[in-house]
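subagent[fold] <- orchestrator: predict structure for attached chain, return tokens only, no commentary.
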Amino acid sequence: MKIHFLEPEFAVADAVYPDDMREVKDQGFRTIICNRRESEEDYEGERAYAEAAKAHGLEWVSIPVASGEYPQRDIDAFGKALDTSATPILAFCRTGRRAVHMWAQSRATSPQCNIPDLLKAAHEAGHDPQPIKDLLGQ
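subagent[fold] -> orchestrator:
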């Protein structure tokens, strides 16, 4: 599990598993957002994850999305989770890419968002900023 902070109270990770929830908690996270779908190959299913998260006192939020398919309702739900969930927050999917894309799209709707800073944060976390530019119409 590789964790990269995009904001002081928000980070993304590649694949997280139910057995990782203790480490997530020990690293100080209070909420975990999952962007994985039930149909994914090595995903153990939301129930196993949610139960493990709750067993370690973590708030669990599930917003499953397919790579490249980001409905506005899911972007809005992600933004709401960022704004209302206990921090710090860790979001994950299989590689971290969907979590980064959801973060970028939800943050870009704010008039206070500085797109160059957003792209820089994604790049520093090891994610190619070009697909994010494309998603944001930049």
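orchestrator: received. Logging for downstream: Residues 78 and 106 are 7 Å apart (CA to CA). The mean pLDDT is 92.
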